[in-house]
Write a structure and sequence with these properties.
The chain is of the alpha+beta class. The protein has 13 helices and six strands. The strands form two sheets. The chain has a four-stranded antiparallel β-sheet. Strands 1-6 form a two-stranded parallel ribbon.
Length: 334
C-alpha cells in the first residue's frame, strides 16, 4: 500500500511521469479501431437486437421450471405460430423467458397453455404480457430524444463552466466514444437493447462526464499557472496527477456494479438489473479510458497551435535550452 501511495505521490509531483498526451496518435488509433469494430460488427450481423419494449410483441415468463431446455420453448412456440421467431433466454436458476412478435389473443392463450404443458408447470406459472408496436416506437423515440438532450446540455455546461468550447468538444468526443463502444458491445455479443440498458448508457455518460470534469479542472489549474512547462507538458502533468484517482474511482465503482451484474444475471434472473449493470460495467471501463487517453490529449491537440500558446511555449523552450547549456556547456558545442 505504501509503495502505491508513493507511486501516486510521484505522479502528482512530476517525479514520475507517463507521456500520455505526447502519444495521443496511438490512443486515437486504438479508439478509431474500437469504434469501427463497434459499428461494423453489429451492422454485419443485421443491426442491434432491440427488446420488445421498443419493437412491440409478446413475452412469456415461466417460473419454477425444472427443465431449462430452451429448444423446448422454441419448438412449442413454432408449433403454434410457425412464422414466429421466438427468442428464448434463461432467467436465474429456475426461469425461462420467451419473446415473440405480436400475437393475437387466441395465439397468446394457446402458446401460454402449450408452454405450461411442455415444461410441466401450472398455468399460473406462465405469465404473458403484450406490448404494442406504437408504444414501443414511442419509447424508442423518447430514448433517442433523451440522449440528444443530454449530450446538448452537457456540451453547453462544459463550454460555460470552463469558458472554452474546445474543452466542451473534447468532452463530447469522449462521451460519443463511450456510447458507441458500449452500445457496440451489445451489438457484437447480440444482447438485447432494452430501456434498462438505455438508462445504463445515460448513467455511464454522466459518470464519464464527471471524471472528465475532474481532470479538466486540474488541466485548467496547471495551464493557468506560471511554470517552466509548455502547454502540452502542463496538460500531461494534470493527467498524471489524476491518474491514480481515476483508476481507484473506477475500480471502486466496478466492484459493486460487478456484484449487481452477477446477482441480477445468475442469482435473481432479473433482466432489468442485468441490463443496467452490464451497461454500467462496460461503460465505466470505456469511460475511464476516454477520460485519460482521449479527452485531455484532444484538448491539448486543439489548443497547442494557438498563436498565444505557441509564443509562450517557444519562450519556455528557449529558457529551458539556456538552462541546459548553463548546466552542461558541452551541449552548446553539440
Amino acid at each position: 500500500m505504501a509503495s502505491f501511495s508513493q507511486f501516486g505521490s510521484d505522479l502528482y509531483t512530476g517525479k514520475r511521469s507517463y507521456d500520455i498526451v505526447g502519444r495521443r496518435k496511438t490512443w486515437y488509433l486504438i479508439a478509431v479501431i474500437a469504434i469501427v469494430i463497434s459499428l461494423a460488427v453489429p451492422w454485419l450481423r443485421g443491426g442491434y437486437q432491440l427488446g420488445i419494449e421498443f419493437t412491440g410483441g409478446s413475452e412469456f415468463t415461466l417460473s419454477d421450471v425444472k427443465n431449462l431446455d430452451q429448444n423446448l420453448a422454441t419448438e412449442t412456440v413454432e408449433s403454434i405460430v410457425p412464422e414466429g421467431v421466438p427468442r428464448v433466454s434463461q432467467l436465474g436458476q429456475h426461469g425461462i423467458r420467451v419473446q415473440t412478435g405480436q400475437l393475437t389473443d387466441r395465439e397468446t392463450t394457446d402458446v401460454q397453455d402449450a408452454l405450461a404443458k411442455a415444461y410441466n408447470v401450472p398455468e399460473d406459472k406462465v405469465a404473458a404480457t403484450f406490448i404494442g408496436a406504437t408504444w414501443g416506437a414511442d419509447v424508442l423515440n423518447q430514448a433517442i430524444r433523451g440522449l440528444v438532450i443530454f449530450l446538448a446540455l452537457a456540451a453547453v455546461f462544459m463550454a460555460v463552466y470552463f469558458r472554452t468550447w474546445k474543452m466542451s468538444v473534447s468532452a463530447m468526443v469522449a462521451l460519443l466514444h463511450d456510447l458507441l463502444i458500449t452500445a457496440g458491445v451489445y451489438g457484437i455479443v447480440g444482447l438485447e437493447v432494452t430501456p434498462a440498458a438505455v438508462i445504463g448508457f445515460l448513467t455511464i455518460l454522466g459518470y464519464s462526464l464527471y471524471d472528465t470534469v475532474v481532470v479538466f479542472d486540474k488541466v485548467r489549474e496547471n495551464t493557468s499557472q506560471e511554470s517552466h512547462r509548455t502547454f502540452v507538458q502542463s496538460v500531461n502533468l494534470a493527467v498524471n496527477q489524476t491518474l491514480v484517482r481515476s483508476i481507484n474511482t473506477s475500480v471502486v465503482a466496478l466492484l459493486p456494479v460487478g456484484a449487481i451484474l452477477f446477482i441480477g444475471s445468475y442469482v435473481l434472473g432479473a433482466g432489468t438489473l442485468r441490463d443496467i449493470s452490464l451497461a454500467l460495467f462496460i461503460g465505466i471501463i470505456v469511460g475511464t479510458y476516454s477520460t485519460i487517453f482521449i479527452a485531455s490529449p484532444m484538448y491539448a491537440h486543439l489548443r497547442e497551435n494557438e498563436p498565444k500558446i505557441k509564443q509562450a511555449d517557444a519562450k519556455k523552450q528557449a529558457a529551458a535550452a539556456k538552462r541546459q547549456r548553463e548546466v552542461d556547456p558541452a551541449t552548446a558545442d553539440a
